[in-house]
Amino acid sequence: MNVKATKATKVRIVKLMQPAPLVPVPFVPVVAAVLLLLLGACSLTPEARDTPTSTPPLVSIFTPTSNPASTPAPVPATAATATSATTAPTATGQLSEPSIVSSPTAVRVGTVRPLQVEQTTDIPLSGGTNRFDYQTIDPKTGLLFISHLGSSIVHVYDTKANKIVANIPDVSGVHGVVVVPEMDKVYASATGDNQIAVIDEGKLQVIARTEGGDYPDGLAYDPNTHKVYVSDEHGTTDTIIDTTTDKRIGSVDIGGEAGNTQFDPVSGRIFVAVQTRNQLVAIDTTTDKVVGRYDLPGCDHSHSLLIDAPGRRAFVACDGNAKLLVVDMQSMKVLGEESVGDTPDVLALDSGWHHLYVASESGVVSIFDVSGGSANKIGEGQLDPSAHTVAVDQRTHLVYLPLENVDGKPVLRIIRYSAP
User: Fold this and answer.
1) N- to C-terminal Cα distance for the chain?
2) Distance CA 274, CA 22 (A)
3) Residue 132 has what pLDDT?
């Protein structure tokens, strides 16, 4: 994650759309027009009179229009608002099935089907009302591992049982987490100690620690060589961990600050977003040498990276100029760029629905349809000032957003969208 963003004390406010100007009606006297407007205003509810005449703000992608059991961000009332799903409260705060759904909130979009929010649920978390970071889901066990950076805790949420099953302490300033399913282990960057903590997925406790470089951040796992690669953000390298011994065995000089690190299973290479050079760097994992450097024109500070291996695309978030780049993984050329919220951070891809989520430090989450080879924005809105990290469950398509402070406590917000 971006160090500058971590230390920021203010979050820039995202401007909502301004109301569209009233269009004068030709050949109607001014007095008659005023009378018509007044009569129309009297027929509206107070909420509808306060509603802009333009399309509703896209913040509605996060909240059903009626959901008293959760604690969603407020949505401005609109004339188009209708009754939606409500989440029945449970004794454990678990995700429950929605009640009767009637016209869920739709999102303003282009040519694809609108997103619809069916349900939101907040799961209380332990620790302080402070910063979260990366998340990862084990597809085998359904366990979601959440970095609670400010509290040095790794929360473990069982996505099948819908409950928190562990809070792993003493992972100092934890940033990145990555699951190694075949070894039943999770690796977490304990950035406060410049270490990598190894978590036993069965015991849900730390079983080993090793050197992590200078400010270890994101992590990626290569199942072919059984090595974890760690973004060494201050040390301009990627640190290498042997998962058979849980020891640091070396590093790769990438020539600049390491943003996010990802493994591409098709090429068998590790790719690193080198944020101070605005490049993608390819590492051969058999030799641990840099074998390619690819410029990212149009990008300022290429911090975040996600690889869609089947689609042969990479998505790069540029936190210096709020852009998302789409990169062809065969030609390594930039195919296009899209705008996102200020200081984009974590990316998550729903491979089945072809939805790409971009969470920004400004609290804006952008959602793209990436089914056609490009990125088509289908939703965007400000969820919460701390909503800069996102994960998605490939099995259920649920979206997970840990939030620092909702009514005085940290929560894991879970959003269910309707199928595309």
Assistant:
1) 31
2) 48
3) 98
